[in-house]
Amino acid sequence: MKTIVLGAGIIGISTAWHLLERGHEVTVVDRQPDAALETSFANAGQISVSYCEPWANREAPLKALKWMFDKEAPLLFRPQLDWQQWRWGLQFLAQCNDAAFERNVQQIVALGAYSHAALKDVVRTTGIEYHRLERGIAHFYTDQKSFDEAGHAVELMRKYGVQRRLVSREELLAIEPAFRAYGAHITGGTYTSTDESGDARVFTQALARRCAERGVRFLYGHDVLRLNKTGNAIEFVATSAHQESAGGQKHSKHQALKADAVVVACGSYSAPLLRGVGVDLPIYPGKGYSATFPLLRPEGAPLVSTIDDGRKIAMSRLGNVLRVAGTIELGGYDLSLDTPVARARCHMLSRRIEEILPGVCDTRTPEQGGDPQYWAGLRPATPTNIPYIGRTRVDRLWVNAGHGTLGWTHGAGSGKALAELISGERPAMQFGFLGMDRAPVPPQRTRMPA
């Protein structure tokens, strides 16, 4: 079957790979010149099956209200004149109760476990190297109240098969000695040995190259203008290619791409694209920040990927650099790094690393002679933190989007699951796939000209 995947991040490339594995003819379309240059570019690097609690919980509304005027807040709601943002916010509030929290955790953990197994299979098959560290993930707390509450999260995760456990400060420092200089501030932590870390961009780009070697057609530098629908089916995808003439003038070449199945995997940009054909999914961008610091003292840097609960940031060793990422800013599609809020959030990452790992990284600003690689990406968030994977009500149109902060964790499994659904199979996990309440529609297998 001829398929088109819109988006070349970890979700889109994983989908393309698994479609290819099942014998489909695949075309991938992305506006960037290579894979993984947007949300998959510089995330925290964690494969965190065990650290996947939804943002929506009973304490979230009060915290979000308290944090509204704090530029460095872990979750910053910046009100916009955008009714989609307010609708998303109301749906988020409806999830802020214990029953919804546990229901959402169950699905997120199921997808995480399925995805981790799928990732391991891909790595075994391809041999891709991506600064992978199978050292687990630790989470440390700096106040007793938060550490006491962590016990409830541990119990809930263990209920659904995740081997996360409470550890004392001494045990945490034995697991990761790099935090000994900061140890007096740590009250305790949790640890899961089965989690891991690695560079999502490196992995995604390597997998994209393997897809290309096996016949996947890549249309990089192509904007997706719209989905064209005739009746209740997608007729074609309208694209525009960026081209430059011999004289240096830039122009666009429009193209209509046809296929038996179209997969929308455009992250935060999936929602407006889908609304153009009447598919309205509550996916809203959450701006996340990261900083990548060169190591000055590699021997003092952590090898265990770790979450700092005090600032809600994660840090992962990626070769000779340390990646630090965190915070969520709900304020539209702004990706700038030069606003007062953005600068404050970036500098918080630098300052916090110096507090926790003094002298280990080069956290100097450019003005001081340093070269910190700050970055911002739009995490496609749903009110439940559960992504939309499956068939839409429009024939030939599928979606794989809404993964929030867990795109790297859920990427391989989301791609495999959607490829299975498109192929008429049912993924072996308990998950609410989109459109699975509808009677299956046999795919058209006639080849269509591009």
Number of discrete helical segments: 10
Rounded mean pLDDT score: 94
Shape: globular
Helical content band: 25-40%
Q: Radius of gyration over alpha carbons? A: 22 Å
Number of strands: 20
Q: List SSEs in N-to-C order.
A: EHEEHEHHEHEHEEHEEEEEHEEEEHEEEH
Category by helix and strand content: alpha/beta
Which consecutive residue ranges, at least 5 long each, have pLDDT under 50? 438-450
Terminus-to-terminus distance: 13 Å
Strand content: 25-35%
The main sheet comes to: 9 strands, mixed
Descriptive report:
- The protein has 450 residues and is of the alpha/beta class.
- It is 30% helix and 26% strand.
- The protein contains 10 helices and 20 strands.
- The protein has helices at residues 10-21, 60-67, 83-94, 98-126, 144-159, 169-175, 200-213, 270-275, 340-356, 407-422, and strands spanning 2-6, 25-30, 46-47, 75-77, 137-141, 165-168, 188-192, 196-197, 217-220, 222-230, 233-244, 250-257, 261-264, 284-294, 305-308, 313-318, 321-330, 373-381, 388-391, 397-401.
- The strands form 4 sheets. Strands 4, 5, 6, 7, 14, 15, 16, 17 and 18 form a 9-stranded mixed beta sheet that branches.
- The longest helix is centred in the N-terminal third of the chain and has 29 residues, at 98-126.
- The protein is globular and about 65 Å long.
- Mean pLDDT is 94; it is low at 438-450.
